[in-house]
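User: Is it possible to get a 3D structure for a protein together with its bound compound? The compound here is pyridoxal-5'-phosphate. I've pasted both below.
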Amino acid sequence: MTGPTLILDLAGFRENVRTLAAMVAPARTMLAVKADAYGHGAAEFATAALEGGADSLAVLEVPAGIRLREVGFTVPLFAWLHGRDTDFAAAITADIDLGVSSMVELERIAAAVRTAGSPASVHLKIDTGLHRNGASPEDWPALVSAARDAEREGLVRVVALWSHLADASPADDEAALAEFRAAVAVAAGLGVEPPLLHLAASSAGIREPEARLGLVRFGIAAYGISPFDDVDGRGLGLRPVMTFRAPVLALEDGVAVLAAGSGDGVAPVTAADGAAVLLEGVRRPVLGVDVDTMTVGVDATAGGRVTPGDVATVFGPGDDGEPTAEEWAAWAGTIGDEIVARASRRAARVIRR
Ligand SMILES: *Cc1c(COP(=O)(O)O)cnc(C)c1O
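Assistant: Yes, that's possible. Here is the predicted structure of the complex:
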């Protein structure tokens, strides 16, 4: 082995989905497989998500949804981030539900329907404070009315109203939920009452039962990573799915060189951040991270005997004392999503089914 290896616990992932789906039932579970399933591999993990009890899948953009259709996924797919060149006709032909944040998007979708020949299923998005996309409360009535009119013309079906929480704090989420309910009431007043409402991702899905509504769009929690600062994935009864390992290439003067670096997605941290890897049963401090390699201290007094060819666990579930992705996220000042999504760049993959 000359480079890093990812071990992906597909069975653990399936179990996580089962745990989360049971937690939020009767709300349904939509599983986010965006960013190639956070670096885990979209098609493989989408299949496992459905086996674990998810009944729909969320991708970020239409092309990722089309790729899932091409490899045979027939379940509901939802895409909500659209660019200026998004091919809505292809999305409609592929039966992908579309998030709609603005009049411009609605008009483009309506135009595409005339090409595709069948109506588009749309989820109208209200912005409840995240300011990423979604209609502002001022624009909301006009968007809802236009969608209603387009529905009467047979161009769209309004199947859901939705928003996304910032997960900043429980108080913020509560305020956002109230805003969402107000927007739902405005839509009802305009004659738009779709069967589905959705708002929560992992964080609110787990901690705020009243935000679960019709479905929860689970992302990172399904991969065994906690969305909270005060508890890790295992503390939530979840199984961290990804283990990242790297062999020792060389050993000199109490320093081991590992075959994984920033080019492999290792965050640029040092022992000063607290960063460590598990090597021969002992946590060893990270001395530095280069493009292709990283160095760790292997002080003889720390115990364990390290020789070239030994394999370090950079992060994993934590069962044997190795750091978790959450710990790496804290050291690097980022979120666990980033740690796992980056780690997949060049590593060889081993999937445990
Ligand atoms: C990423 C994303 C999710 C999943 O978020 P997690 O916090 O990872 O669970 C859900 N909904 C939307 C709109 C997203 O962008």
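The radius of gyration is 23 Å. The first strand starts at residue 5 and ends at 9.
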